[in-house]
Write a sequence for this structure.
């Protein structure tokens, strides 16, 4: 079926580039810096790149990340309009995790002024990692079904806060760095084997709302929350993704438990958390994404 618009996204969708490229979705890439050298958020394009990233973390290197500048967005949007027909719908990495979407909006305005008659719509996903990827994937389904840009834009705006991000971590050092977990709490939790249970709130900000002892309990608590919030509860039959930061064994155990409990889920896609997001969470994080009710606001 003829596609009525172009869909684009950013590398922090945390899905393999081969999959996103295969769905004909142009991508703009984030970067990170270690010891003054810049690296690209690779999306598993280069064999061994993600392993090299975690080796740097293991060696004590501290990556830093930043927004995508306006000019890079402008160059990206201009190239997309030159090489594709139709208007452009760009779904951006959530503003609860980065203000970069503001740069995308500014760039879109300037590129449209230089290309009269072409439209660029930028949407703040309020999502991150493979939850952001799931939202983009749903939009690609609509595009491929022949829906218009307006129909897809309206659906994304109506459902972007319904993509749940439930996750837990077994390594707290990097959450301590980001301020999500205090220093003393991180030390005590690591000694006792305590895992914080986290989620994104309605505005896409990370909230640590519970803690459990042991990995098995972390998986159970995460899936309890999925049963509570997923569309149709344990009868959920929609898309379901899991992503992990260098802990595939825990991701596989989470998938096994999920498929055992949610019998109508046909497939669970497991993806790597990319280098930009992993720069802030470090290794040992597993996240589950699904479509459900509107995410709750943060409550102190």
């Amino acid at each position: 079926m003829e596609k009525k618009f172009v869909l684009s996204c950013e590398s922090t969708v945390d899905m393999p580039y081969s999959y996103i490229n295969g769905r004909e979705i142009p991508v703009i890439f984030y970067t990170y810096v270690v010891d003054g050298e810049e690296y690209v958020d690779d999306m598993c394009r280069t064999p061994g790149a993600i392993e090299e990233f975690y080796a740097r973390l293991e060696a004590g290197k501290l990556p830093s990340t930043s927004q995508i500048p306006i000019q890079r967005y402008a160059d990206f949007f201009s190239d997309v309009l030159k090489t594709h027909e139709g208007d452009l719908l760009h779904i951006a990495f959530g503003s609860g995790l980065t203000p970069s979407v503001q740069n995308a909006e500014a760039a879109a305005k300037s590129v449209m002024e230089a290309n009269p008659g072409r439209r660029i719509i930028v949407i703040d996903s309020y999502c991150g990692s493979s939850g952001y990827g799931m939202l983009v994937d749903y939009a690609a389904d609509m595009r491929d079904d022949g829906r218009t840009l307006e129909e897809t834009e309206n659906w994304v705006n109506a459902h972007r806060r319904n993509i749940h991000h439930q996750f837990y971590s077994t390594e707290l050092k990097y959450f301590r760095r980001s301020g999500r977990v205090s220093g003393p709490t991180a030390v005590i939790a690591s000694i006792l084997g305590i895992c914080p249970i986290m989620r994104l709130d309605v505005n896409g900000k990370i909230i640590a709302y519970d803690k459990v002892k042991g990995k098995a309990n972390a998986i159970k608590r995460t899936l309890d929350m999925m049963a509570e919030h997923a569309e149709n509860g344990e009868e959920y039959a929609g898309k379901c993704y899991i992503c992990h930061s260098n802990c595939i064994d825990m991701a596989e155990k989470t998938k096994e438990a999920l498929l055992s409990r949610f019998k109508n889920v046909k497939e669970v896609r497991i993806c790597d958390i990319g280098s930009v997001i992993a720069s802030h969470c470090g290794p040992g994080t597993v996240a589950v994404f699904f479509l459900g009710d509107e995410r709750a606001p943060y409550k102190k």
Q: What stands out?
A: The longest helix spans residues 129-144. The radius of gyration is 19 Å. The chain has eleven helices and 13 strands. Residues 174 and 280 are 6 Å apart (CA to CA).
